[in-house]
Amino acid sequence: MSDDAVPRNIRRSAESVKTILMDESVNEAIKAASAISILDEISNDPNIPLHTRTLIWNVASQLETIPVS
């Protein structure tokens, strides 16, 4: 979010993912699904730097391990 090499719209989306994940009133599985959806959308942006895309994929992979129970 603080990397100036990353386009502003990507940084805004990353901030919204952070907000979703920090919300204590929402079920963990729902937070993970919402975050994964946003991360998937921004990882397909053609303007995203490769190092940022890799980081997003890593975060999404970690979120996918959250159980749906």
From TrEMBL:
It comes from the Archaea. InterPro entries: Ta0600-like_sf, UPF0147. Pfam families: UPF0147. Belongs to the UPF0147 family. This is UPF0147 protein MCON_1675.
